[in-house]
């Protein structure tokens, strides 16, 4: 992913203070800090990100203009008005980044909850361990909350966390700040598909391991080949011989995935890797991991259902066996 960071600034939010502590100047992006900021932005483009497109008159978007520092202050204040309702507030640093990606200008808002940690202190030869506050998370960790907006297309990627207010949990960022209902993330979409398909199969008494493997195989192929999840197409694969089941699946999954979900600008490598092997846990304690490319290959592995209801697994044409431990 090619990201060219142009500007960055960081402000401080302390729930005990009436206002945000605004920085007055941009960050000096040394190679170390540039790497940190870039990795934080890259983390927003994940399979946990929700996605959508903002309208030109969106109130959140109207806070962003050509003055990057002023824009960061406006967005920070806009965010604070909603976040202060949270029942569990912590100190946060608010990182704002202006960057280019694929020749498009982007604006990023990244909230990072500060942490307590222990540090090695060398006091004139006397080594001590002290607890330190206001520590930023590491470069490799995802931000607590973040949004990246393509300022040309108005498309956004959002990582959000719910806040608790009056005993209830709210997706305050998408519901209140953006006033949008974004597409669900890849991870949530896959979970919704699996849960819905298994529920429909259970009503048909077909929710066995073979059906679960069929779900995984279909989802894996859709992500790998089409970079998308189409509920109708998946329904045809899951329940090819049962029209009622196909319609039930599409109707029940529609609330989460109303139409084809495309994965534009979302790296799918991690999800593909996770789905690329069928992992089977057998009742006798044996565990098997079968690559998707071999799972349906009768010359490599065969699943046999015996007359007594038990299963046998036949693994074929093995040239070499190694003991890995």
UniProtKB/TrEMBL annotation:
<dbReference type="Pfam" id="PF04245">
    <property type="entry name" value="NA37"/>
</dbReference>
<protein>
    <submittedName>
        <fullName>Nucleoid-associated bacterial family protein</fullName>
    </submittedName>
</protein>
<dbReference type="InterPro" id="IPR007358">
    <property type="entry name" value="Nucleoid_associated_NdpA"/>
</dbReference>
<dbReference type="GO" id="GO:0009295">
    <property type="term" value="C:nucleoid"/>
</dbReference>
